[in-house]
Amino acid sequence: MFLDFFRTVRKVYFGHNIVLWLVLLVLPIGTSVFMVDVFSAEILQHIPVGIIKQDRSQLADELEEGLRANPVVDVVLECHDFSECEHAIVKGELQAFVVLPYDLERRALRLETPVIPVYSSGQNYLTNSFATKEIRSVVSSIGANIFTKMMDEPVKVQLQSVGNTSGNYQGFLGMGLVTAIFHLAGILAAVYLFSLTFRDHRVREYLAAAGGSRAILGLATVIPMGVIQSMAMIAVYAYTHRFMAPMTLDEFIMVSAGQVAMVFACNGVGAAFVGLTGNMRMSTSAAGVIAGPAFAFAGQTFPIMAMPFAVRCFAFLLPLTHVLKVQSCMLQGSVGKAHAWDSIAILIGMAIFWHLVAGRTLFMRWKRAAQREEEHDLKSVSLFGDEVKLRRK
Amino acid sequence: MIDLFTRLIKVAFAEWKLFYTDAAAVLLLVVAGILYAFYYPTPYMNQTVSKVPVAVVDMDHTVMSRQLTQMSASAQQIDVRYVFSDLREAEEALADEKIYGFMVIPKDMEKTLRNGGSVNLNVFTHGAYVMLHGNIGTAFTTCGLTLGATTKVKRIALGKKVPAAKAMAMRDPTPLSIQTLFNNTGSYSNYVVPSVLVLILQQTLVIGICVLGGARAHRKFRKKFRDSAVENEKMPYRYFGRSLAYFLHYCSFILFYHFVIYNIFDFPRRGQLLPMIAFAIVFLFSTINFGMVLSQVFLRRETSMQIFLFMSIPILFLANFSWPTYLVPSWMVGLSALLPSTFAVPAWLSIEQRGADIFEASALLYPLALQAVFYMLLGLVLTRIRDNTPLKTGDM
Fold this sequence. Notes:
The structure holds 2 protein chains of 2 kinds.
Chain A (H helix, E strand, L loop, with lengths): L1 H13 L3 H21 L8 E7 L4 H12 L3 E7 L2 H10 L4 E5 L3 H6 L6 E6 L3 H23 L7 E8 L6 H31 L3 H7 L4 H28 L7 H29 L2 H12 L2 H4 L11 H9 L1 H12 L3 H43 L3 E2 L5 E2 L5
Parallel strand pairs in A: 1-2, 1-3
Antiparallel strand pairs in A: 3-4, 6-7
Chain B lengths: L1 H19 L2 H17 L12 E7 L4 H11 L4 E7 L2 H9 L5 E5 L3 H6 L4 E8 L3 H31 L3 H8 L4 E6 L6 H28 L3 H6 L10 H30 L8 H23 L7 H15 L12 H7 L3 H14 L4 H30 L9
Parallel strand pairs in B: 1-2, 1-3
Antiparallel strand pairs in B: 3-4
Helix pairs in contact in B: 1-10, 2-8, 6-7, 8-10, 8-11, 8-12, 8-14, 10-11, 11-14, 11-15, 14-15
């Protein structure tokens, strides 16, 4: 039995083309590392803003210098009139512009509270919120110096993000995206591996390698795939997590348990798609529709509680939602551990359920496909169309 | 001339017929473009996040701390579900995701403020959620700073012996008025979906072309269409005829998104006719030629799908819509210049969302036009090479 198992593993994993290893390992790791490096600047800075300086006073100069000295915004354009800045915003060259109106200083000193208009493009949610926050901070702190320089602000607010104190976007988005990529990889790799035999009419050949046992063929396909992808995911996650507060050993074990359960659940989903559809094209399409945009549904960017009810139900069915919850619980330190168990249990339940569905459907399909291959004397073919000879026991 | 058009249109019709009779191609080139356009915006149908569950940890228990709590409770973005006296309880609730943030009102806050001192209000948000961090932070910060402003006005009025109105003006002599253009409700769907729609067009078109291009290398396809006049047409006619079929088909998608999807999901629609036409021409030709190049590379119909599904996320983040390009490592920026979406997404946002005219959009349309020419030349060369290569790849 063990010999059959290892022979099947060899056949499944080392018997064909590069696409398998691309989908199984190279693309998930490569894409994940790439995504993490996209956010290597870690925080938003140098947001391009413009300025219209209608007032030529000391206060206007101070405000301009304050904006220029701010690391988050960069004054890249001093416009001569309103339309110049407006056009630059439309073109996407500026995120926002500040108008320092005529008689700003004189009116401010007369306590006429001259309003400083700021125009910001709301099209980009992230840069808009950062730019307006910084402009507000610069203007209010310089404005406050006019009459109340010696007076402290009575209330200061300190905003802290638990588990990501520096507001690092590699932490905010990078880790979620890595998980989303492996979520997709888990499903796609299973779809590829399980449907390959149907596409190339090689069911008899693979069953022959497994000693005729469909159980061995299934296990020899799914176990190495789950192990390889779990290891890869844990390694990439650890690489990504180095930007955040370090995890303790038990936190690492908890997260890893969640990730392993997710990978197996995704493999089960992929295998079940093949079992249900019976061909690579349809199951790959189904995997693409479900797992492609899964990150948008999993709640890390737009929260699940703000989604319509039907979408929340769909989000619950995605393994990604639960593993992201495990990861986010771990950001809370020891307090989060107890709460991560529920999500891990759900993931394990999903893995078992989908593997049972896959087992049931694939067993039937393998049997039928083997019979069909025999009846029609279908030839197994390699990538280049060459016939593959069956190994007879 | 007429003969040229007739031959091109013949190839275009044959291509349409082919992809409407091929289940995989229909799924990608017809169904996916429609399905995704409805499917992707659904999580964001509520557009903004309001009433995020939060808590207040009140260690002061005074009239002022209760006022601050009430002020927070009335903020639109947050919903104060719990008022705790112990920090640990708030941490537990945060870990359990019963709340997504909390504000700590320190002990003796009122006493300190009345004695002329200053206090720190700490706001903690859940580190895993970008958007909630901003919403909760803004709501609590506004409440805290309002309390600070009231206190400061009182201090100025009493200290400098001036009326309240004057004290208010002295506290903030240069108030800001922030006008948010193009998305004044702060809608999340308005921010994400338009960019994703362009990506949907690109990805479905490229994968679709690869699926059909891949089919041409298959033995079964070659056997079936060996004697077809269209498949034996001269290479430039085949190339441009097929491109024409995809171009006309995807023009209808751009119109569908502009007139139907934008209306249904209530996205601002400021696109003018001329820049829209220019965008459609350069974007589609760039993408079609890009797809034609790639279709010569993949031997199997499904391979492009398997590989491009992985690429969607990086491609989206390289398109300068979410994370600014100037913060992306330069080698990635160089790599992204090969993708039509890198220029198409900002161009689409500029034209459709911000109402750019042809001159304003031209800086983003030129690179797309260059890409179209580059990929067309490459595509023609690769098609010629493929035509002369005997392939006998598997089934259909």
